[in-house]
What we know:
The protein is an alpha/beta fold.
Amino acid sequence: MPAAPILDVRGLTKRFAGLTALSNVTFSLAPGEILGLIGPNGAGKTTLVSLVSGTLEATSGEIVFDNEILGDMPAFRRAQLGIGRTFQIMRPFPGLSVVDNVAVGALFGTGGGERELAKARERAMEKLEFVGLAHRAAQRAEALGGPDRKRLELAKALAMNPRVLLLDEVMAGLNNVEIEAVIAIVRKVRDQGMSILVIEHVMKAIRSLSDRLLVLHHGEKIADGAPDTVLNDPRVVEAYLGRRRA
Ligand SMILES: Nc1ncnc2c1ncn2[C@@H]1O[C@H](COP(=O)(O)OP(=O)(O)OP(=O)(O)O)[C@@H](O)[C@H]1O
Ligand SMILES: [Mg+2]
């Protein structure tokens, strides 16, 4: 029997005023699985991550994390349970150093996080080394360039020691060498036992990382399955891949 899912999303819907950003989406994430999430701009990918992490409230539907229905649980409590995310629009804490930005993640992470600042900074340094950003630890976060900001987002999320990691386009704007480095990092994270949902427009990364693929289009799930099958699905080619090649 397959292991019980760590994350189970049922009939999730989010409406903004007149717009349905996410419509009745159901899927699950197994322990240790990497699930790729793709779809055109505006398909509802970031909305889905925000609903799971609790920064947005669902209109209807259910999110179950490790057999617990999350309901209206606030984001900080979900983080304590072990749901970590990155932000597509990066928001480093201005005025704080790179290492302290990551230490904030360590202070508010799984199980309530580190209690002591010194310990949080220690964990932050480990994560910065892990993502290749240790040499920038003392700089102010807003001084970082694009690729380094992506690394910072990743280190912040990892410092929470999440059980489920939601990655929202952490490779956007990176060059090929940098993308390969992030792919290797994500693999290593999974090998440590984390379950990962990865949103990415970089198809090379999606292909090489995903155990399974989920496709959203206009807020609806149009495919969910083995990457080879999904990427050859005519609906997916029509909605996303064909358009990208054009
Ligand atoms: N806070 C909000 N208020 C109103 N509409 C929103 C809000 N957030 C997102 N939307 C709308 O919901 C839809 C889905 O947006 P979302 O950001 O989830 O798409 P996405 O798949 O992440 O796109 P991208 O690939 O461009 O990041 C879009 O039409 C967007 O304009
Ligand atoms: Mg998005």
